[in-house]
Design brief:
The protein is built from 27 helices and 24 strands. It has four domains: 11-230, P-loop containing nucleotide triphosphate hydrolases (Rossmann fold, 3-Layer(aba) Sandwich), CATH 3.40.50.300; 243-449, Rossmann fold (3-Layer(aba) Sandwich), CATH 3.40.50; 486-592, no CATH class; 674-757, DNA Binding (I), subunit A (Orthogonal Bundle). Strand 13, helix 14 (351-362) and strand 14 (368-371) form a beta-alpha-beta unit. By secondary structure, the chain is α/β, with parallel strands linked by helices. The chain is flat and about 85 Å long. The strands form six sheets. Strands 1-4-5-3-6-7-2-10 form an eight-stranded mixed β-sheet, sandwiched between helices. A six-stranded parallel β-sheet has the order 11-16-15-12-14-13, sandwiched between helices.
């Protein structure tokens, strides 16, 4: 008889297990719960953060506390996240720790998972009897009215936001406001590892969202309301987490030489390697031998190791090679493969086989466990001492999950030290691969205070962008004459804008914009103008339509990036900044490279030494090898990535010295008066004059009730709607004088034919 139903795992009734919850919280988790107890006792409504670093058990802590304090008291819980995996992780935690000891007053509770995933329910499935809604923020934001029946007559609601550093996005703020308008008492809890890894302006938004905290056992209000916070070092010192030791090995393998736009976006947005590149990596004999030999050389130190492979072919190949090499050492490897990935390989490994291999790994019979993504979460393997990252990723979440497999500390039944071993390839495209040590960086979460380690992290980020530039220079089909002619020091970034936002697929999208001397002023002006630009397009959309992005990018290009820049700006950088601002309504954070010894990276200095000393070929080769191979921090190697690029740059700089005299002639530069400068430049060189001109312009526009636009005549009470404008544009010979300045409203200024020439303030 055919079934007329299927089991819906996205919703169901949870019946608590009898007895005590076998998992006891650690001290920091108990402290976090106590802090939440204090807020719950003190405030009928509150909004607060719990900050626990990677491996600290945020989901367990929150779900256990909610079972006791919300679900058991008959209060509804709305749990928000932006990724399917986070939703499922939360649901699993509520189910796994539902014991009678946590829920003494109820016999069951009803949960529902909602997202755009085929395996989950939709907002239309929400029922008034649901006790726990675990829902994606995008699914809910598009259908907020579906909450009305569920919220009807509710006096109190617990609202949980997972990965709360994203809650500054418009979507989250819209949901928060909607719920607050319909429920008298909302108790909001944000969970995050790094609330301060955001831009300063984002921190201001966080402060407006999370206002309540706990200090010295008392409920307080602060700049950013935090109920409980503990840093990574403290958890390591308590032996709850293992101390990570990062190692990296360069494979010298080249990939992505001619990636198309579609392939590049697949990697950057979806964290999916094109099949042909994945197979190329999987079948690379030299790369695979390096991975295996690296382990065998330090097998005693690495111990029980989990290896993350690129694909199923790669996992099978590495397992075979590990077993061949391990015969003489008595070391065995096994492979964990999901049956969903078996098609096309001919390899059939059943669930029973996987369980057998896991058991062998747990009892020490198998020392190396190779998998693709199966062991990223939900599998308890405390004996793991090392994690081998044989695949790259652009996903911070995935990197965190992979590293997390080895972070169980002594007190938690794990090890005191964990090796995180990366294998780094050469990519001839601008791809922001996540570095494993970046998971541990952030205010209050800096693992290593050593200045040299900080330098290395910065240089690695620089090198991502430099690879693309060097690849262009090595390609004779692209004219790089102007770039090569520029002083090499100008091609060393002075800093970068680094930021993260959630794309439409719910994936954390990380991006870095390198800033050079040539582009610094343009980017600074763009950042100041972002509110104005978005006022002009008048959009409330969090995900900008392509036509709006095109319009904004064109405006930015014509207004801020008109002159020749060496190195040039990248139009993609502008688009990603715009996408970030649309979601966060704040400018991204700027990281300066002032801690980096830029002179040591200046190839022109190295070239000048070779040229002036008239080195022989052998002497030059020895000098270059010494620079490349020695040094306690290997800045050159980190910066250039590949010796070929370094040598090519050296040759270009030597050729320049041979063609042009080394000394510059004396130059008497022309001078410009302040009246020939735009306002933003006057502000830099003569702030007093800037203030005088600014106030005189507004004084002329001042009327009863506010300030009058010189074009439309409308009166505005607040200056923020007004802008200083040149009556005669500067490109038409106008000067920055009191007589040539007027006040326009933003709309009129935007509509002027020369709107992108005006000096807005």
């Amino acid at each position: 008889m055919a079934k007329n139903y299927i089991k819906n795992t996205a919703a169901g009734e949870v019946y608590p297990q009898a007895g005590m919850n076998p998992r006891s919280p650690f001290e920091h988790q108990r402290d976090a719960m106590s802090a939440l107890d204090r807020l719950d006792e003190t405030h009928a409504s509150y909004s607060t953060l719990v900050v626990l670093p990677t491996g600290g058990g945020k989901t367990y802590t929150a779900s256990t506390w909610l079972l006791r304090n919300a679900i058991d008291r008959g209060r509804k819980v709305l749990w928000l996240a932006h990724r399917q995996t986070l939703l499922e992780q939360a649901a699993d935690s509520f189910q796994r720790y539902a014991y009678a000891s946590e829920l003494p007053h109820i016999s069951s509770f009803h949960y529902r998972i909602i997202s755009g995933a085929p395996s989950h329910d939709r907002t239309s499935d929400i029922q008034p009897f649901d006790d726990l809604l675990i829902i994606s923020k995008d699914s809910l934001s598009r259908n907020l009215e579906r909450l009305n029946d569920w919220l009807e007559s509710e006096e109190e609601l617990y609202l949980i936001i997972d990965e709360a550093h994203h809650s500054t996005a418009k979507t989250y703020r819209r949901i928060i406001d909607y719920v607050a308008a319909r429920v008298p008492y909302v108790k909001m809890l944000g969970l995050t590892a790094t609330p301060f890894r955001t831009a300063e302006s984002e921190q201001g938004l966080l402060a407006r969202i999370y206002k309540d905290g706990v200090a010295d056992g008392q409920a307080v209000q602060g700049d950013i309301g935090i109920a409980y916070k503990i840093d990574l070092k403290e958890l390591i010192s308590r032996r709850i987490l293992a101390s990570p030791r990062f190692e990296s090995y360069h494979t010298d393998e080249e990939y992505g030489t001619h990636l198309g736009l579609k392939a590049w976006e697949s990697i950057q947005h979806l964290d999916q390697l094109p099949d042909e590149i994945a197979e190329e990596i999987a079948e690379s004999g030299a790369r695979n031998r390096l991975i295996v030999e690296t382990y065998m050389q330090k097998a005693a130190e690495y111990g029980s190791t989990i290896v993350f492979a690129v694909n199923i072919t790669h996992a099978i190949t590495l397992t075979k090679l590990f077993n061949e090499a391990g015969k003489r050492h008595g070391i065995k490897a096994a492979c964990i493969i999901s049956e969903t990935y078996d098609m096309g390989t001919g390899v059939k490994i059943s669930h029973a086989d996987n369980e057998k291999n896991l058991a062998a790994y747990r009892n020490g019979e198998v020392k190396i466990l190779v998998n693709v993504n199966i062991l990223t979460e939900g599998v308890d393997l405390p004996m793991t001492k090392s994690v081998f990252l044989a695949r790259p990723t652009v996903s911070t979440i995935l990197m965190t999950q992979m590293i997390g497999r080895g972070l169980r500390g002594k007190a938690a039944g794990g090890t005191s030290l964990t090796y995180i071993v990366s294998f780094i390839d050469d990519w001839n495209e601008h791809i922001a691969w996540v570095s494993p040590d970046s998971v541990f960086t952030g205010e209050g979460n800096v693992f290593d205070d050593d200045d040299k380690e900080y330098q290395k992290r910065l240089i690695r980020l620089i090198s991502i962008a430099k690879i693309e530039e060097f690849a262009k220079i090595l390609n004779d089909s692209i004219d790089t004459t102007a770039l090569e002619a520029a002083d090499f020091s100008e091609r060393i970034p002075i800093g970068m804008y680094a930021f993260q936002y959630i794309n439409e697929d719910g994936v954390d999208f990380s991006y870095q914009v390198m800033v050079y001397n040539s582009t610094q002023a343009s980017y600074e002006a763009l950042m100041q103008a972002l509110p104005e630009l978005f006022d002009v397009v008048d959009t409330e959309e969090e995900y900008l339509p392509e036509e709006v992005l095109d319009q904004l990018e064109a405006c930015c290009r014509s207004r801020f990036f008109r002159t020749d820049m060496i190195p040039p700006y990248d139009a993609r950088d502008i688009r990603h900044i715009l996408e970030y601002y649309a979601q966060k309504e704040s400018e991204p954070r700027f990281y300066t490279f002032e801690h980096v010894d830029r002179e040591r990276l200046d190839v022109s200095v190295i070239a000048r030494k070779i040229w002036t000393e008239n080195m022989t070929r052998q002497a030059e080769a020895e000098y270059i090898n010494e620079l490349w191979e020695t040094g306690d921090d290997n800045l050159l190697r980190l910066f250039f990535g590949k010796k070929t690029y370094f040598i090519r740059m050296k040759d270009i700089e030597i050729a320049k010295l041979s063609e042009f005299p080394p000394e510059r002639p004396a130059i008497a530069y022309e001078k410009k008066s302040c009246e020939q400068l735009p306002l933003y430049q006057i502000k830099k060189v003569n702030p007093t004059l800037y203030e005088k001109l600014h106030e005189e312009a507004f004084a002329k526009a001042e009327v009863e009730g506010g300030y009058q636009c010189a074009s439309c005549g409308k009166i505005f009470k607040n200056r923020r709607y007004m802008q200083v404008d040149h009556i005669r544009p500067m490109n038409a010979g106008g000067l920055t004088t009191a007589g040539n300045l007027q006040i326009l409203c933003r709309s009129c200024n935007a509509l002027k034919a020369d709107r992108w020439e005006s000096d807005d303030t």
